[in-house]
């Protein structure tokens, strides 16, 4: 059993702390993204309409991810701060609150998916064969909502204490399961898109079972659970919600923006929707290293902030941002030069390939800016401040991207103008994110000598 926190080792060597957390996170997130890529790759072989059907489900499923990951960010930041303060009792209590939140979210979203799934798909613009296929896919995924929610909460709890290897291993097992089950259910049993959903649900069940064994049976974590002595604590819930609610709302706004964009793109054609969906999955892989560093910084900065080790905090923030930007630039160059070789893996449709390659080569150019923006927002979360992410996301998605994309479509501009709207929004959002970070450094009087960190 892990009986001591990682605070001391993190303070002794912040650089090692960052990479010891970030590398498993990066690997785990790449594995999770491969989980999604495998689905879209096999579905892409069925046809453009099938990919478009999955694209309409994605915003709804992203709501589930958004609520859970958003609140999970609050859980991670709160646990990290309590560990920094050497307050294990409240760190444990925070994790117990997260489990109860997971139960409530799972029940609510399952009910919504069962009773209102088709209506939501119609609202998003799905029609005819695409609507029927999307609804069938969504109905099956609804039965796996609990597995998704609890797996994400367990991952957030472990991240709060600095444990990232266990989620990586569990995610790898889930992805391998999905890779094996997808072709069986999609092609061998001839379930088509429904087969992809069944494979996903079964893989999620396997992952959830592994989390239960590691945390509750083997008890290999620093955080421990004792629900017989659970104590409802408003302050803990407030800490979680202060970061979690803005983060969840941000994810929901992104989901809404994706839905609006799908509705705009369907006016250009299902091939354009399919291209957008495929490139979005590829972008996830490209951006994993930056996200891994950002998530690791949430825990480390949260611990250092709780322990009031400001010199080390400043140093690790500068180090993390610089390394994330360098890695992202390298990945952008590689992906830009190999776009024509990568996209044919997902589809053989010439129009989807043409649109997808153009979009990919445009959007990757601003990913170094996205790296800065994401890390700035995560550091603010580590301070217990969730509003910067919400403000930046609202401006990027609702104020700039969606209105401009709709305007360009209405006046008959080619689809490339929609991609330009996204680029402009990202650049502006990055500047605002950096402003927020500077503001909170001043607000919390975070100053110190970084020469010996």
Structure report:
- This protein is mainly α and 453 residues long.
- The protein is built from 16 helices and no strands.
- Helix 3 runs antiparallel to helix 4, helix 10 runs parallel beside helix 14 and helix 14 runs parallel beside helix 16.
- The longest helix has 38 residues.
- It is globular, with a radius of gyration of 21 Å.
- The mean pLDDT is 89.
Note poorly predicted spans. Answer: none
Oligomer, anyone? single chain
With helices defined by DSSP (H or I, 4 residues minimum), what is the helix count? Answer: 16
Silhouette: globular
N- and C-termini, Cα separation: 30 Å
Strand content: under 5%
The secondary-structure class comes to mainly alpha
Please describe the biggest sheet, giving its number of strands, its sense, and whether it closes into a barrel. Answer: none
As a percent range, the share of helical residues equals over 70%
Our Rg estimate from Cα atoms comes to 21 Å
């Amino acid at each position: 059993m892990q009986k001591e926190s990682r605070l001391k080792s993190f303070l002794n060597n912040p650089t090692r702390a960052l990479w010891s957390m970030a590398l498993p996170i990066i690997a785990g997130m790449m594995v999770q993204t491969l989980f999604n890529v495998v689905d879209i790759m096999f579905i892409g072989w069925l046809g453009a309409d099938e990919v478009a059907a999955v694209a309409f489900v994605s915003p709804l499923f992203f709501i589930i991810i958004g609520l859970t990951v958003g609140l999970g960010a609050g859980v991670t930041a709160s646990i990290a701060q309590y560990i920094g303060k050497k307050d294990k009792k409240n760190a444990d209590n925070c994790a117990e609150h997260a489990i109860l939140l997971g139960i409530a979210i799972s029940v609510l979203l399952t009910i919504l998916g069962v009773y209102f799934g088709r209506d939501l798909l119609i609202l998003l613009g799905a029609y005819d064969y695409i609507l029927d296929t999307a609804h069938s896919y969504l109905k099956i995924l609804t039965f796996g909502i609990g597995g998704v929610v609890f797996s994400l909460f367990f991952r957030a709890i472990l991240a709060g204490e600095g444990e990232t290897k266990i989620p990586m291993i569990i995610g790898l097992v889930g992805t391998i399961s999905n890779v094996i089950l997808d072709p069986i259910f999609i092609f061998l049993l001839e379930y088509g898109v429904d087969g992809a959903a069944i494979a996903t649900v079964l893989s999620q069940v396997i992952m959830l079972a592994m989390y239960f064994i590691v945390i509750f049976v083997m008890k290999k974590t620093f955080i421990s659970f004792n629900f017989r002595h659970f104590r409802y604590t408003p302050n803990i819930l407030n800490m979680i919600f202060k970061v979690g609610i803005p983060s969840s709302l941000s994810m929901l706004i992104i989901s809404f923006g994706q839905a609006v964009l799908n509705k705009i793109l369907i006016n250009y054609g299902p091939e354009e929707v399919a291209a957008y969906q495929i490139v979005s999955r590829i972008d996830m892989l490209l951006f994993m290293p930056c996200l891994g560093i950002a998530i690791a910084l949430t825990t480390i900065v949260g611990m250092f902030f709780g322990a009031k080790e400001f010199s080390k905090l400043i140093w690790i923030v500068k180090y993390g941002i610089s390394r994330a930007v360098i890695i992202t630039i390298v990945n952008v160059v590689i992906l830009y030069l190999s776009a024509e070789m990568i996209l044919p893996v997902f589809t053989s449709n010439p129009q989807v390939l043409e649109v997808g390659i153009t979009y990919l080569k445009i959007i990757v150019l601003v990913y170094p800016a996205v790296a800065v923006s994401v890390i700035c927002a995560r550091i603010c979360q580590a301070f217990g401040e969730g509003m910067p992410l919400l403000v930046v996301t609202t401006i990027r998605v609702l104020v700039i991207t969606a209105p401009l994309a709709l305007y360009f479509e209405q006046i008959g501009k080619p689809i490339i103008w929609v991609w330009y709207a996204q680029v402009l929004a990202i650049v502006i959002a990055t500047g605002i994110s950096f402003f927020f970070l500077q503001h909170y450094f001043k607000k919390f009087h975070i100053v110190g000598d970084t020469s010996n960190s």
